[in-house]
Amino acid sequence: MEHPTHPTHLLVFDLDGTVLDGHGAGHRAMERAFLQVVGQPGEFNHLDFAGRTDPAMLHLAADRLGITIADEQWPRLLDAFVTALAETAGATRALPGVSTLLRRLAQNPDVGLAVGTGNVEAGAAIKLKAVGLADVFPVGGYGSDGESREAMLAVAVARTRRFYHADDAPLVTVGDTPRDVAAAHALGLRCIAVATGRYAQPDLEAAGADAALPSLEDAAGFYRVVSRLSGRDLSD
């Protein structure tokens, strides 16, 4: 797919809960990897994944158990997680309307698409391939770039601007959790929040989302919101 240069709008999408539903694939893969490398269950089903990066989740599980992941264990743990995810991601599905919207945006020369996700890069690639969207996001930031969501998103923004040669284009993020909203605002960005994850529209509005949508099924409505938040008209 050919990607635009100097687009007038940049859109950075979260993945889980926003673009796709992994149906617990990440939980299962982390549990398997943790048991294999650390030697005990991480009990990830008791942890809140929403808006956290993969490395943050692994550290959170270790902290909850009162253990430390040794430096030499860390690369083995991440490798084991990615290997396990490749085996558990088969049930991953794109959320309603997402594939249509992203394909429409990807064909628009005024739009530069990117991903800003807590997934490590290899894990994001596995999930996007599973839902047939591996070619939509040519650039982005990942959990492997920074453990905090703010650090990851800062990398995503910098890479996206460099990739599209669009230093001055308005950039809007799209996520599904209050952590997505907080990270965007910490970087001075606008955030569209969609109620397709764990949080309802009123929760996302209360978290300060610049716009809260029930889903991404209304493509025309999404275009209108992006136009309003960016201060520039976006149309097909």
Look at the structure and name the CATH superfamily of the largest domain.
HAD superfamily/HAD-like
Low-confidence segments, given as residue ranges, are: none
State the strand order across the main sheet.
5-4-1-6-7-8
Helix content: 40-55%
- CATH topological fold name of the largest domain: Rossmann fold
* Rg computed from alpha carbons, rounded to a whole number of angstroms: 17 Å
Question: What portion of residues belong to β-strands?
Answer: 5-15%
CATH class of the largest domain: Alpha Beta
Instruction: Determine the oligomeric state from the structure.
Output: single chain
* Morphology call: globular
- What class do helices, strands and sheet pairing give? alpha/beta
The biggest sheet, with number of strands, parallel, antiparallel or mixed sense and barrel status, is: 6 strands, parallel
Compute the number of structural domains: 2
Q: Count of helices? A: 9
Order of helices and strands: EEHHHEHEHEHEHEHEH
Arithmetic mean of pLDDT: 92
CATH architecture of the largest domain: 3-Layer(aba) Sandwich
